[in-house]
Amino acid sequence: MPILYFCIIFACFYARMRYIINIKRHPFGGKFLAINLFGFIFTRHELLPRQLLHELIHSRQQMEMLYLPFFLWYVVEWVVRCCVYRDRMKAYYNISFEREAYLCEKDENYLKDRHMYAWIKYLRQS
Ligand SMILES: [Zn+2]
Description:
Layout: H1 2-15, E1 19-22, E2 34-37, E3 40-43, H2 49-64, H3 68-85, H4 88-93, H5 96-104, H6 110-113
Parallel strand pairs: 1-3
Antiparallel strand pairs: 2-3
Helix pairs in contact: 2-5
Bound molecules: zinc ion.
């Protein structure tokens, strides 16, 4: 089973997967415009180029962290930041993955120039 997992990860990495799935309801009932799970972008609306790039940055982050560790790190960092800020949305916007995505989503060439694990420099608290 782990071999299959790593085969899928490497296939995704080299194929630079980009699947957009239109849904009627958000899978977690939130107000988020889109959610990216394992490179699959679930959205209720057609995404603007900036929003698509935001999600593609998350796809790259997930791939380089081999997917499952990304989600684990994401949740742990959100919980830690919730304790620090005592505000769920402020914690969300300050997750390092989100900070990278929001700050770089307007740069059309960002993914071409981006270094692996670029999100690490966004770990510092603002
Ligand atoms: Zn995001």
